[in-house]
Amino acid sequence: MIYFYKGKKNILxxxxxxxxxEENKQIxxxxxxxxxxxxxSFLIGAGCSSFxxxxxxxxxEIGIPTMFPMAxxxxxxxxxxxxxFYLIKNNIFFYKSPFLGNLxxxxxxxxAYKFLLExxxxxxxxxxxxxxxxxxxxxxxxxxxxxxxxxxxxKFYRKLLYRDNNLTKTNIFTTNYDLFNEIALEQLGVIYxxxxxxxxxxxxxxxxxxxxxxxQLDLSNKKWNVIDNFIYxxxxxxxxxxxxxxxxxTLFKIKEIQKPQFQKENNYMxxxxxxxxxxxxxxxxxxxxxxxxxxxxxxxxxLVTIGYSFSDEHINNLIYQALTIPTFRLVIIGNYxxxxxxxxxxxNDSRIWIIGEEEKWKNGKLxxxxxxxxxxxxxxxxxxxxEEEIEEKIKQLSELFKGE
Length: 404
Known about the structure:
Layout: E1 2-6, E2 9-10, H1 21-34, E3 39-44, E4 52-54, E5 59-61, H2 67-78, H3 81-89, H4 103-119, H5 125-142, H6 147-160, E6 171-174, H7 180-188, E7 191-193, E8 196-197, E9 202-204, E10 214-218, E11 223-226, E12 230-235, E13 238-244, E14 254-256, E15 267-269, H8 276-279, H9 285-296, E16 301-306, H10 313-322, E17 329-333, H11 339-345, E18 352-357, E19 361-362, E20 365-366, H12 374-381, H13 385-403
Parallel strand pairs: 3-6, 3-16, 6-12, 7-12, 16-17, 17-18
Antiparallel strand pairs: 1-2, 1-18, 4-5, 8-9, 9-14, 10-11, 13-14, 13-15, 19-20
Helix pairs in contact: 4-5, 6-7, 9-10
C-alpha cells in the first residue's frame, strides 16, 4: 500500500496496491513544491548505497549491504573458529545473540570489553585485533565501485540540477563513507565542494562551505553569476578517503587521498562505537555538524531524508531542534512503521511528511522492493524539475491565448 502522510493524514485518496498515474502525479506535484523552496537539503543514509539486483533465482547485492546482511556475512564468512570460540568463551558473542544482526552493537560490546580489560590491566591484543578486523571489514565493504549504483546517484543529481538559479544551492548531507556521491558528480561534470582545498595535496578547510563558483558575465561591469551545476557535499561521518596527517603544517590535519586504503589508526571515519557521539565533537566533525545545524536553522528550510533510519542520536537531536522552527519541514522517504520513524509519525505534525510503501516480508526477505527505496523513489516519484517548468509555461501560454 502506497502512503503519503502529512502528520497522520494520508493525502492519497485511498491506499493503492500499485502506484497509479494519478497518485504518481499527486506525489510529484507535492514534491515539486519542495524542490522549489529557497533552502533545500537532503540527508542520504546507508540505505541509498544498497541495491539488490534481481535475477531468476534470487536477489544479489551489487552495492553496499545494510547492517543486517553485512553482519551475517561477517559472522559466517569472516570470523574464524578460534575468534568465535574466544567470543563465546568470554560471553561476548554467540549465534542468535541480540547483536548478531548489527555490527554497530557488536563493535559497542567489543569496545566495552576492551575498556574492562584495560582497567583490569589485562592483555587486550585479541580484542583489539577483533575490533580492527571488524573496522577493516566495514571499510572494505564501503570501498567498492558499482556502476549500477552510481547510475542511480547520477539520476538523482540530474533531477536536482535544474533548480532555479536564484535559489540557494542544494546541500547534500550523508552519513555514508563510500564514494558514490563523488563519482556520480564527477561523471556528470558537476562542481561540488566537500570541505577540502588543494589539488596535489588536499586538506580540510571548512571555509569552503561559504564559497560558491561563479561565472563572469560582463567584464566591464564585473557582473558575476553563480553557476547552476554546483553542490555542497557534507560527509558527516567521514570518508574512506580521509586520513589524519600529523606531518602537515596546516591548521586541519585531515587529508583527502585519491586511493583509499585501510589504516588501523589514521582513517578518519566515525565507526559505530560507544564514542560515536563524542567523536562528532572533534574536528572535522564539529565543523561539519555546525554546518548541518546552521543549514537546518535557516528560514523556509526543507530537509529530505532518504535511506536514513533515524538511529543516530547526534543527528536526530539537530533535526529535533530544527522542528522547533515553525517554517521548517521534514520529508521522510521511508517506512513510517520503523521504530525511530514511528516516533516522528506519532507527533502528528503536518510539517512532517512520510512517503513510502508498506513492506511485506517472507522468510526474512522483502517480497518486493518498496517505493521508499532509493532506486524506486528516483525513477518513479522524484519530479523532473525542468519538465515541470515546461508544462507550467505551456499551461500559462494556453490560458493567455484563451483570454484573447
